[in-house]
Amino acid sequence: MSKSLERKIIDICVFLHTELSSMQCDLDDSILDLNEVLRLEVNQALELITENIKDLLKIKRNFMMIDEYKNYKAHEQYQKALQKLEGEVRHHIKIEQQMKLHIDSTQAKLEELEKNKEDLHVNNILDALKKENFRLTEKVKNLEKQADNNDDKIRYIKELNMLKGIAQKDSQKNSELEKTNKKLEMEVSYLQRKLDILNREHTNEKIGYKENKQDTHGKKIHYEEVQDENRAPPQLTERCRNMSKGELKKSGSKSPISGRVDLKRTESQFLSSTRGVKKSSGIPDKPRKHSHAGTNYNKVN
Bias regions of kind Basic and acidic residues — which residues (predicted)? Predict the structure, then answer.
């Protein structure tokens, strides 16, 4: 082997030793110092170079393993973050469903309270009429007792007859109000059945829309036609209003007690239920088709 080649081998060995020594803070006792490296023979220098190359390859493999581990950790953290976000989304969906159920329950309670308020108002009017009738009856009895001991019997008889007529008219008003209340209850039941039918049709329309989006336009037109057909006709509303007014005016006489009881006409259950149908269906007011009330009632039955 030539001297120049041997010298290059020694130089390579010295370079590797110097670089490796500079990278290590604490030198191991087994590592040769620079003077010992310079005194090595060529074969020993080649062996030292080979060992250094092996150590470098081993270090390279360790670095590659560390990089793979870092990539694995990053992927694992990404999966955990994704699972956490999916859990939050499911939680929000659950809360949304609970809120929808709560809103539906509150709406049902509100409608029930409005209905009870209407019934309570009618019952208060009936109670007031019954109390007035009872008071007049007691007054008639007292007048009958006084008429026996009074010289002016004719005047008391006239007053007695007038009070009897007033009591009879009040009794008729009481029975007429009870009949009106029963009719309104029948109308509420009729509209409730119509509302149930509309809700079922609306639900079927929603399901059909999800299954086939291409038929959305046709189903919407069909739903609006059904809504227009089942909408309460204005003739029935006007007839119910006129009937309520006429029954309160049938007496024809302005009795002394006619102004004592305030018979305020409240909004009927028919009109409030009609607005409830519009509000639940979410369809704006449109020109109604003229149809007879009896026809719609037979369709529902």
Answer: 206-231, 238-250
Q: Looking at the predicted structure, is the pLDDT value of residue 297 above 50?
A: no
Q: Give the predicted TM-score (pTM) of the model.
A: 0.24
The structure tokens 């290059």 sit at: 8
Burial class (CB in 10 A: 0-12, 13-18, 19+), 187: buried
Residues 6+ apart with CB under 8 A from 103: none
Cα–Cα distance, 54 to 16 (Å, whole number) = 12
- Domain ranges in the chain are 3-80, 117-300
- Our CA angle for 223, 224, 225, nearest 5°, is 90
Distance CA 245, CA 264 (A): 11
